[in-house]
Amino acid sequence: MHETAVAQSIIETILVEADKIGKKPIWARISCGQFNALNDEAMQFALDVASQDTPCKGIVLEIRHIPLRASCKRCQNEFEFDIYSGTCPACGSSEFDFVPDAPLLLEEIEFEDEDT
Ligand SMILES: [Zn+2]
Fold it and tell me: Which CATH number is associated with domain 2-67+101-111?
């Protein structure tokens, strides 16, 4: 399962950061593109499993899905690709190149505030 491998690598990265500052991570946000899209529920589940017995246990994950973009070969318009229309919204051409898909990225980690 794709999500399991991703969750493990995310937890490893978060643990390194958590270790540096010595606080418990409680929330994280990742972003991903459309070709390697993650299922939100499967991802949270995989994360729960991967974070068992680590300081990340109980962490909440937010996934930002970044739409796929395409660039029109005829009018150079760059647009959000819609699989249901499949044409350039500016000129109606169906010839375009895909802009490289957004990589899977760990954007932000929030740590427990010791004062509260
Ligand atoms: Zn166009």
Answer: 3.30.2320.50
